[in-house]
Design a protein that fits this description.
20% helix, eight-stranded antiparallel beta sheet, 6 helices, homotrimer, alpha+beta, elongated
């Protein structure tokens, strides 16, 4: 085992929630290495966490345990799952938060967490990240046999990004994520874009602006002129060199973006 | 020694204060494992730090060194202390910040930090977390004899949460903490509530709303209908399923909350 | 090697950028110890990062690898450098972000990062912190020979804080940094101040307020009366005891501050 546990939650950093989880992990596995992916997921936004997980999990060493807790159903009947893939372990509530990552790295085994021998007692109904997920992640990181945590199940809940629509010579997507710099990340991934434009010239429309083709880097952009590029999420991204495309375009999640192949 | 040091401060994450402390710790003990409990305590709020420490310290492995720095008196005459309890070490300015935790885990020894052999020189009058507390915590985490840091003292400064008042069939408390999700945490802890209601039915009043008894989990709540439960701080908490009770009720720290046993 | 890598970036904590970098580091060096100095540098503010690095790097153990990424020129032609000094390694884009630290700790060797054997492939044009800087830092932390990363170069880009001006009996500086507590940090460092006032009495003017000489600690200040002291950045700082000097004085970066030696 690598002993590495990554954390991705909507707990924020204003409270002691993440700290308590880490204490619990170290109680079980004092050698665990805990790495924060992000704790500032918008409260209860399963799809945002799913998107950031998809963009992060592969950068970690093999056998990393990815613990993802965005859990609006905490304490209700939703299942809690442990997924083994070729390279990683994933632990999360079964609410779709793993779905985008597992499309890229298919599950080999899915276990429903049920054996309370591995839980912190008493298990609260409001903070199972601390009482269930954290200790289980720690035991997994120590190499505990995954069949001990519960019975194997077949399928997990899905979640999906908004679909890109192709029609005639137009590809219609939308902004699905906005980063700290105000870069607007769309649901049009690199492959979808490449397959659609097939080396032809194209233009991108967002709000009342039109952008000609792709730049390679943020630094290529001119002042007050938005540019488009394939960003680190491997998706079409609208940015403003040394500025915020979000503020400049007054765009947000859901803002439409269109790709048109040029006719001449 | 576990070599684990937890940090709880009001230094925030916008500056380099926490990073500098961690550097100093690793200079003294390169094997120390440093875990952040929280750095976003409201500036100078001793009681908030005391409350989060009380809700966190037990989740850490035995022999963890809990370093707590909310220190409006830095550089003045306030004492700096090291407390050994059955399971942990605590290091802090002597201003009440440890008091709530030590009510649950009584001090066995209290040492006033005085031996400047263990301090970073020169000691500044504005950042003793870096120059005094961090290196001392690192030496303690390495197993240094605690009597070497200074002389033993008898008592430390107290701090207290607002008191809950019981009168006739009413229990009167208040909101003392609000978490990232807008959940309103009161000073009425589980035991006080249980002792008061003794299995009878009861209702909870906050602002102009009345809530019937307790829910078990956030997910039980209906849209736009606040619920009450015993949360992860082991206290009565008012919440809104997938929403913010703070925003919905326009409540804040100090908002009154009342429990009334039902008469029929 | 110490195996310690410090991180200082403008990536914030709202996205997965820092987490992805850490994953990459651990893939290369599973034993690396990663310490965050700060990730909340104002986007693209090279000088702010340079200032915080200068105030932090010395507090880390010898042989720490300081990785600093504020990189508005990412993907453009700017160089990427590795600097070895007597006590540390520094890795950054060559845009001035290391300049203030290296004034205190002069470079012994400067290497331009060019050997893509050490890069994550494919190298993106938008996130070279993850694809170039993080893996290189990890290899350096493992003890890789620094000449393997590229050819040696002579000089790096400069950056400078605003200059302090001395004229007759007046020293004129400005606020260059404001911390979480609203303390106003000026560009007048301790030595400059001492050399100028030479044990004479002096007063400090900022906005419409006058402050008499230095206090030693924040706690010496009276309510609603700003004080001046030499803070943890080793510079003249204006503060308000248990309050925010920024809010009280409505000051900001660039606010002028003057020192006058008293005539009688």
């Amino acid at each position: 085992m690598s002993g590495i546990i990554s954390l991705l939650t909507d707990f924020g950093l204003a409270d002691n929630f993440v700290g308590a989880m880490k204490g619990v992990i170290l109680k079980v596995n004092p050698r665990a290495r805990i790495i924060d992916i992000c704790h500032n997921i918008q409260p209860q936004s399963i799809i945002e966490a799913a998107f950031l997980l998809k963009g992060s999990f592969k950068f970690f060493p093999k056998r990393t345990v990815h613990l993802v807790v965005v859990d609006p159903g905490v304490g209700s009947g939703r299942r809690k799952i442990l997924v083994k893939t070729k390279n990683y372990y994933f632990i999360a509530p079964d609410n779709g938060v793993l779905a985008l990552a597992l499309k890229e790295e298919p599950p080999l085994k899915i276990i429903e967490l049920a054996n309370d021998k591995y839980f912190l007692k008493p298990v609260s109904d409001t903070f199972q990240a601390r009482d269930i997920f954290a200790p289980v992640a720690a035991y997994v990181s120590k190499g505990e046999d995954i069949y001990k945590f519960g019975r194997q199940i077949k399928a997990i809940k899905a979640s999906e990004l908004p679909k890109v629509k192709a029609k005639n010579n137009e590809l219609a997507g939308e902004i699905i994520y906005i980063d700290r710099f105000g870069n607007l990340v769309s649901n049009i991934d690199k492959e979808t874009l490449r397959n659609f434009i097939k080396n032809k010239k194209f233009k991108i429309s967002i709000k009342d602006k039109t952008i000609d083709g792709l730049s390679r880097s943020y630094a290529e952009g001119l002042k007050n002129k938005p540019l488009a590029l394939i960003g680190s999420f491997n998706s079409l991204e609208i940015a403003l060199n040394c500025g915020s495309a979000r503020d400049y375009l007054r765009a947000g999640k859901g803002t439409k973006i269109k790709i048109k192949v040029k006719r001449f």
